[in-house]
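Re: the 52-residue chain
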Amino acid sequence: MVKIDADLRPQELALLECAVLMGLNAVGNTAGSKAGQIAAVVALGGGGLMAV
C-alpha cells in the first residue's frame, strides 16, 4: 500500500501505475534481471525510468 496525495488527478495516477508495473515486469519477468546486475535501458519513458 502506498499513500496517494489527494491533489493528484486520476489521469496522473493511471500513468504512474501503468509505468511502475510495466517497468517492474520488463526488468524482473521479461529480462530476468536480478538485483545488482548490469543492464542497458534503451528508452527512458515512464516504463524505462521505472526499470532504472
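Helices lie at 10-30, 46-51.
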